């Protein structure tokens, strides 16, 4: 039974969201399902929990939900995932490149294998998904590519060389994609979130609480006060609503944008 909140605006479309078994990716996948889109989930996690997630999403919103476990650092697995989406759901109409990892160290101490992994998953994977999804979008003359960058695609922080380089690169890829599709029904844009309370950020909070001998709540406030003037975390639901807008007809002239949702971070 379709959830009453489903507006059906994207009914018949298929949204592939990488890194969508939790956090930001799941929040975005849920919003697309609520709009009537069929969804391809991707990411790591307990197989039983992912099966349950699939079934729950399909039941709640009355859409088709499938899952592919492609490792986003491996081009051959990405290719298999796009083929799977074609075979199961008739192709990818909306591609959300969300998969990402993080590692913190100064440049001279940064492990080479960590650099390679972050560039592969946070940047190269978006190139591979885009190059494989674009031919199908061009055939239909309709498509949306939404790259989840970061405020770190716009500004830098010490210790995050690979992440910042990858996210800046992702914004460059977004702009090139937007120019190459400018006269078509395909748009390419990026969303640049500030701090979202994902497991990745919760770990930073926990580490800070332990290091400074303060409570978890105090550590959250301290983390936000460093960067995010609103003093509040961005939520996956808010990012999902922005992604749905970028997929809508109202946003058809939004092309090559780096849309920050960051509580004022980059306004400083």
From TrEMBL:
EC top class, as a word: oxidoreductase
UniProt entry tagged with the keyword Nucleus: no
GO terms under biological process: monocarboxylic acid metabolic process
Record GO terms (molecular function): 3-hydroxybutyrate dehydrogenase activity
Cited Pfam families: adh_short_C2
Keywords, sorted A to Z: Oxidoreductase
Sequence similarity: Belongs to the short-chain dehydrogenases/reductases (SDR) family.
The protein's name in its UniProt record: D-beta-hydroxybutyrate dehydrogenase
Organism this protein belongs to: Duganella phyllosphaerae
